[in-house]
Amino acid sequence: MKSAPLSSSNNSPRPARTGERLIKRLCADERTLRKALALHTRLEKVFKQDALPNVCAYLACEILGTEDVSWEAASLACGPGEPACFELWRSVRVVLSRFEPTVSFISLSRLYNIDAPESFINVLGAVKARAIEDSAFTSPESRDSIFFSVFIWTCSILNVDNVTVPLIADDYDLEEDELSNYVRAVASRCITLSPMIIRHIEATKPANGRLVTIIQVHGELPPQLTSPVKPKSPKRERENEDILLQDAPQLKRLKPAPTSRLDGIRRTANKLSNTAAGFFVNVNTSPTSCIVANQNQNRDSV
């Protein structure tokens, strides 16, 4: 995509004004609109001269992960050459990550072709709330990493094989070893939540058994997660559940997992945490193909 030449002339159009108009067309929700406009203003300050207001507006909406911004509208905002726009978005993300998270669970789910209704997003939020108790996520540099690592770990326990450490590290220009360490930190904090997460995902499947569910779970669940075992010492499990339910009221109907099953899960987690390769499966997927897949999917739905 060939961009218009940069110019600081007083006669040149004001990018902010054009960008604001585009954002107002893209964002239907008032709260989303305010956030997008604020982020657009920040982008204007970072890039003093901006002759691509449409791209700037697209970035402001897409970084927020808003669902009401269709790929068709985003394509019009970008103009031709969407992959080039994606590269610009990645560089902007690096700049903005010093101030606030630049990814969201909604945008990650959409980018990696995962059907993510509200209940699954709430589960990710509950895992994030537990994970940030760990000191590994206290630095400003970890603002994006917490979203990546929670998303990777939660997808891994649900056997979603197209979300991996190497893939996300490559797509977002991250250090693979560093991201693996963050994923291990999430696993160490949140492994006791695994049974409740799986039960919650299973409970939200349609009663008629149709394959239109939160996530397509590949294969069978381990026996220790499906066998009905009466808990012998529920006190500790109730405490763990209470912490989770503070951030995910939708999970209140779930029962705490028995200690014997949790011990098996912890042993499995300790083995897997020795190497990132044991956790995930490599998938050859490029960011461009993800974007094109999503764009085609939305066009078909229209």
From TrEMBL:
The lineage of its organism: Eukaryota, Fungi, Dikarya, Basidiomycota, Agaricomycotina. Residues 223-243 are annotated as: Disordered. It comes from Cerrena zonata. This is Uncharacterized protein.
